[in-house]
Amino acid sequence: MKHLFFVALAIFPGVSNTVSAQASINMEKLSEGTNTHSTKFIEGIEIRGGANAASTAVIAPAKKKTSKKAAAVVAATEGVIESCSALQFKYAQLMDVDVESIRNASLFGFLEDWWGTRYRYGGKTKEGIDCSAFSGALMAAVFGFALPRTAREQYQACEKIEKANLQQGDLVFFNTRGGISHVGVYLGNSHFAHSSTSEGVTISSLEENYYSKKFVSGGRMAAN
Fold first, then answer.
1. Which one of 28, 55, 89, 94 has the fewest CB atoms closer than 10 angstroms to its CB?
2. Does residue 182 have an active-site annotation?
3. Model confidence over 9-19: pLDDT tens digits?
4. Are residues 122 and 182 in the same domain?
C-alpha cells in the first residue's frame, strides 16, 4: 500500500499540493485548540490553558497608578472604618448611609437603649412609651431641650421647617388621625426615630408611602 501511495503522488502532482495544504490547515486548527496563547476577555481577567488540565480563570492584579495623596486618603478612610463600633454599623445600615457619618454617639446610644420599647398611649417609661414622650425624652437627653408633653404642643412650640431643610435633631410631625397626632426626631437621610404604635421605638423613613402622605411639617427648637 505504501508503494501505491507514493506512485499516486508521483503520477498526480496536484495531489501532493492538496495534501500539503490540508495538512497545513489541520496543523493550524490543532494549534488553535491547544491555547498556546492566553485569551483576554475582561480587563484584569484572562483564561490560561495548561497542559493536561482544563482552562482556569486567572485574575491579574489591576495596574493603577495611585498618587501619594490619594493613598493617604484611602489609608485614613480605612482607619476610620476600622475604628467604627457595632452601633455605628447597625444604624448606618438602617439609615442607608456611610458608617463614618454616624457620629453622634449620644443620640444613637440613646436610641439603642430605648430600641424596641413598646408603644403605650400616655406611657413614658421602658414599660411603654408614646411618641411625644419619646421625642421629649430624646430631645432632653441628647440636645438639651425641654419639650411640652403632647405632639400638638410640641408643634406649636417650634419653628416650622420644610422637609428639604431638615437637620439631625429637628422634629417631624404627622397627621395620622386628625390634626398633629404623631411626632418623631429626624436623624438624617430621610430617616427619623419615633415610638410607632405597631413597632414601638424604631426608625422609619419619610419616603415610606404611609409617612410621606401623613407628613405635615418639620420643627426646630430654638436655642435658649
1. 28
2. yes
3. 443 444 444 44
4. yes
pLDDT, one tens digit per residue, over 47-83 is 344 444 343 344 444 444 545 544 443 343 444 455 5
| Catalytic residue (choose from 37, 158, 191, 194) | 194
Identify whether 3 is a catalytic site residue: no
Specify the pairing of strand 159-161 against strand 215-220.
Answer: antiparallel
Taking phi over 0 as left and psi of -120 to 50 as alpha, with beta for the rest, 121 belongs to beta
Domain of 79?
Answer: 74-103
Residue 131 appears among annotated catalytic residues: yes
Does residue 86 lie in a domain region? yes
The amino acid present at 37, given as its one-letter code, is H
Same domain, 117 and 157: yes
- Choice among 3, 84, 158, 182 that is catalytic: 182
Regarding whether 204 and 128 lie in a shared domain, the answer is yes
> 3, 37, 131, 191: which one is catalytic?
131
Q: Is residue 23 part of a domain?
A: no
